[in-house]
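Run S-adenosyl-L-methionine-dependent methyltransferases superfamily protein through structure prediction, thanks.
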Amino acid sequence: MMRARSDEHQKQRFLTWVLLLVIICGVLYLCSQNHGSSAMEYGSKSLRKFGSSYWIGDDDTDVSPRKLHRNVNDGVILKSFPVCDDRHTELIPCLDRTFIYQSRLKLDLSLMEHYERHCPQPERRFNCLIPPPPGYKIPIKWPKSRDEVWKANIPHTHLAIEKSDQNWMVVKGEKISFPGGGTHFHYGADKYIARITSMLRFPSKKINNRGHVRTALDVGCGVASFGGYLLSHDIITMSLAPNDVHQNQIQFALERGIPAYLGVLGTKRLPYPSRSYDLAHCSRCRIDWLQRNGILLLEIDRLLRPGGYFVYSSPEAYAHDEEDLRIWKEMSSLAERMCWKITARHDQTVIWVKPLTNDCYMERESGSEPSLCRTDVDPDAVWDVRMEACITPYSEYDHLAAGSGLAPWPARLTTAPPRLADFGYSLSMFERDMAIWVQRVDEYWSLLSSKIKADTLRNIMDMNAGMGSFAAALKNKDVWVMNVVPENGPNLLKIIFDRGLIGTVHDWCEAFSTYPRTYDLLHASTIFSDIKGKGCSVADLLIEMDRILRPKGFIIVRDRQPMVELIKKYLVALNWEAVTTADSYQEIDRYDDEIVFIIQKKMWVTSESFSDSE
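Sure, done. The structure for S-adenosyl-L-methionine-dependent methyltransferases superfamily protein is below.
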C-alpha cells in the first residue's frame, strides 16, 4: 500500500515537471516570435575590442537607443555602442533576407517583392556599429577606382568566375579589376557605347547629343561598367540592380566610384519622379517586360522624358528562334501601343524613342490597351506607391511645349527648369538658392582644407537636397552626389533631375538602400531637427550614417545649436572625431542659431578582424 502511494506521488511529480517544462518552452517560443533575433543580441554575444578597451557596457547595462537617447538628453556623454558581429559587415537593414525569412512575410516571389524594401520595426533594428571586413583598406581613388578595387573591401569573387566569359571582373592578387565587360558587351562598354552612338546618328556624333542626353537609367546594371564609361561622355547614370543572386554588384559599383542604387522593378514605383531620364538601358537585364500587361515597361515610360530613348539589348531583338520571335512580336506590339517608335535596330540591340506630345495617345482607337492613367493619379508620387499598368500622359503645358523644355548640359545645371513653377518658385528664388549654396560649399571646403586633397572625396550624399544647389555648387570637383529628398516634404526631386543631377526619395526614419561603407561624405542640413520633429530617433539616424559612411569619411552637419550639442555627446560612442565648428553669421541667408559642425569617422577594426587579417 505504502509502495503504491509512493509510486503515485512520484508519477504526479513527474507530470508536474513535464507540464512546467511545456509552459516554459511555450513562453520562450512566443517571445521568439514576438521579438525575433535582435541585433542587440547579436552585438552583445561577442565583444569587440579597440586596442585594449571593449566597445560595450557591462552586462547589466541597458544599451537600447531609447535608453541611450534619454541618458544623452540628461547630459551624459556616451562611451560605447555595441558592435555587430562579423556576420553583419554587409548589412542592409531594409533589404535583409534573414529578417524577411524570420518575419515570415507573405511575398510573391514572381513579382520580386522579396527584393523590395521591408524594414524592421524599431525593436528589431540592428542598433550596433558595423565593423569593416578583415583586411579592409581605404578605397582606391577615382578615376583609378573605375578599373580596380581592393579585394579585401568586398571579398566576393564568385562573379569573376560566373561571368568570366563576359569580362565583368577579374581577380588579380590583392585587387579586383574591371575590364569594362558586361553580359551583352563582353568586348567592353566603351565599344558598346560607340555602337549605340552610331545607331542614334546624332549630328554631333556623340552619345550625349550636345548635352541633350544627360541623365540615364541602367536597369539590371551588373557592376555598372556601362554607367561608369558614360561618365566620360558627360552622362550621369543611375545604375540600378536588386540585392539578388548577383550579390554585391551594387557594392562593387559604389566601391568603384560609380553612381548606383539598390532597387528592383517589382510592384512599386521606382523612387524617381516622372520624366527624370533622357535615356533608359537594359542589356540582358533578365526582366520580363511583358508581365502584368506590360506594367514594368510602362514604369520605364513614366520615367522617360518626352523624346527619351530606351536602349534594349537582348537576343529577342534579333529573334533567331521561335521563342525569341514570340517575345519580340509581343514586345514590339506593346511598344507600338505605347506610341514608342523604333529609331534604330542592329544585331541584338534596338532603340525606341518616346513621343514628344500626347497626339499619338489621342489618335489610338477607343479601348486601346494600355489605357491612359487616370487624371487623379500623381505621376510624381513615388514613395511606397504601387505601379499601375497605364500610360502617363503629358500635362497640357508639356504637350504644347512638345519636349522637356530643358537646356542642354552644362547650362541645364544653372538654368531654372519649367517645373519650378509647380512649386510656385520664382527665377529669383532659384538664383538666390544657388548663390547661397555656392558660398556655403566654398566655406565647407575651406573648413576641410587641412583634411582633404583633390581626390579624397568621390561618393557624396546630400541627405536633404532641396533643389540640388549643394550638388550644383560642386560642379568643378571630381565628385558625384546622391541627392536625397525627404518623402514628407515637397517633391523637389524633379527639379534636381531637371538640372541634370540624380537622386532619390527617402524617409530618414528608415535605413537607406545601400551597402555599408559606400559614401565618402554625408551632408546633413537640418535633417536631425526634421526627423526629431517626426518623432524618430536621432541615435538610430547616427548609427545609420555610420553604416553608410566609409572609414575616414566626413559628415557635415548643418543644424541648430542644441541639436549639434546633442550630436557631440555621441561622438565617443561612434568613434567619430570633431574636425571643426563654425557659425553662419557671414552667410547670405542664415538662421541665428544654425551652425556648421564637421565630423570625421575614425578607421577601426575589431580584435577578431585584426586577427583574421594578420
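The mean pLDDT is 87.
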